[in-house]
Write a structure and sequence with these properties.
Helix content is 25%, strand content 25%. The chain has 155 residues and is of the alpha+beta class. The longest helix is centred in the N-terminal third of the chain and has 15 residues. Bound molecules: tetrahydrodeoxyuridine (THU).
């Protein structure tokens, strides 16, 4: 038998330790969360994408009475960014959530969103830095691939 360990090191930072453009990106994600359409879960998620051209694109979860027809904030943001600027890599993604009248602790993208983030990263061959915004801290993840080890690939 052989064993393989797949580790993930993430940094936990205060907002004061982040560059100004990343603090603004987190703020954009928070604002986007407040605009989410989440009448069924009451759980509002915001995502903000910083593109290599400096543009910020935001998205939020869009729910539907036929539940699976809704869409997560991260995918709304990344799909729209790629639709609007098909040749511009995503540099950074910030995610924030709001529930029961307050911003929540940090949340992490769901499995389907991780798969989409990985594709957005691989299509340009540039890492997407991911900022998971919590109440007082930010979890910093170096690239989308870190969130999806052993991802499906055609060989
Ligand atoms: N949601 C997101 O927007 N992003 C995630 O990564 C996980 C979950 C949304 C889907 C649904 O509208 C609500 O959060 C509650 O699950």
């Amino acid at each position: 038998m052989k064993e393989e360990e797949i580790g993930l090191k993430i940094r936990i930072m205060s907002e004061k330790e982040l560059p100004y453009d990343e603090v603004s990106l987190i703020e954009a994600a928070r604002e986007a969360a407040l605009r989410a359409y989440a009448p069924y879960s009451g759980y509002k998620v915001g995502a903000a994408v910083l593109l290599e051209n400096g543009e910020i694109i935001t998205g939020n979860n869009q729910e539907n009475v036929a539940y699976p027809s809704g869409m997560c904030a991260e995918r709304v943001a990344v799909f729209y960014a790629n639709a609007r600027y098909p040749f511009v890599p995503v540099r950074t993604l910030a995610i924030a959530a709001y529930s029961q009248n307050a911003f929540t602790g940090f949340i992490s993208p769901c499995g389907a969103c991780r798969q989409v983030l990985l594709e957005a990263e691989k299509r340009f061959g540039k890492p997407i830095r991911i900022l998971l915004s919590g109440r007082d801290e930010v979890r910093v993840i170096n690239c989308a691939g870190d969130l999806l080890p052993l991802a499906f690939e055609t060989l």
